[in-house]
Amino acid sequence: MAAAKKVRTMIVRMISTAQTGYFYTTQRLRQGASLAAVKYDPKAKSRVLFVESRKTAKK
């Protein structure tokens, strides 16, 4: 019987604070702090702050 493997990373969704609905998906460590980054939003056509939101399972 194989032991369960512990997952160290998780998939998170980085949502634009410009409220355009644009997002990036990325991985981060489970034990790490929440992510926030300035990235390019093509709908807003500028660099905006993206904040982390957990990626939900498809239904």
From TrEMBL:
One GO term (biological process): translation
Localization per Swiss-Prot or TrEMBL: Mitochondrion
Domain of life: Eukaryota
Gene Ontology cellular component annotations, sorted alphabetically: mitochondrion; ribonucleoprotein complex; ribosome
Annotated transmembrane regions: none
A molecular function (GO) term: structural constituent of ribosome
SUPFAM superfamilies xref list: Zn-binding ribosomal proteins
Short name of one Pfam family: Ribosomal_L33
UniProt keyword list: Mitochondrion, Ribonucleoprotein, Ribosomal protein
Family according to the record: Belongs to the bacterial ribosomal protein bL33 family.
Protein name in UniProt: Large ribosomal subunit protein bL33m
Protein species of origin: Antrodiella citrinella
